[in-house]
């Protein structure tokens, strides 16, 4: 269970692993309540260890900057924590510029590729999901170490999402421009077609007379 808990977060997954090992060893199956309690205990211990590792890799300035997300508010009156959760809008050029600014802001929050080093991607996704499901006041109720670890994972996922969204928006804009260019080219060809046919007919008649 402890080995699997480094990458899996659902108690049911840990229980299933334990059951497989017990069956393989030909041992008597323990009661479900025993396995459930053990899974909860192991998960709590492993997660606490992961959170401590992330916390220890943060500098003091990093911690202050991340914690400020839960209290500082933007022009709309919402915390910057909520800004991390925003999704890209329709792929207009104005939204593209806004998304570029958002990516720059998220990048300035810190090097999230270093802070969760060694943490399984599935675990990062679970921690980020837990932070995403909470609001700023709720997250402030967490212990400091876990609060910062969840923020790190959320910022890490937000940076990845911001890049993916920006790339997707750019591709959609280019695809739209290509589509419009093709339509304009086809329209030009259709407009020139009658002139081409008349020119061809005139040329043919002239050649026939000669």
Briefly say what this structure is:
This protein is an all-alpha fold. The protein has helices spanning 11-24, 32-56, 60-68, 80-83, 93-108, 121-133, 136-140, 144-209.
Describe this structure in words.
Helix content is 72%, strand content 0%. With 210 residues, it is mostly helical. α2 packs across α8 and α5 (93-108) runs antiparallel to α8 (144-209). The N and C termini lie far apart (95 Å).
Point out poorly predicted stretches. Answer: none
* Count of β-strands: 0
Helicity range:
over 70%
**What's the overall average pLDDT, rounded?**
85
**How would you classify the helix and strand content by structural class?**
mainly alpha
Distance between the termini: 95 Å
- Outline type: flat
Order of helices and strands: HHHHHHHH
The number of helical runs is 8
Largest sheet: none
Q: Tell me the β content.
A: under 5%
Radius of gyration: 29 Å
Q: Which labels suit this protein?
A:
about 210 residues, mainly alpha
What's the SSE blueprint?
Layout: H1 11-24, H2 32-56, H3 60-68, H4 80-83, H5 93-108, H6 121-133, H7 136-140, H8 144-209
Helix pairs in contact: 1-2, 2-8, 5-8, 6-8
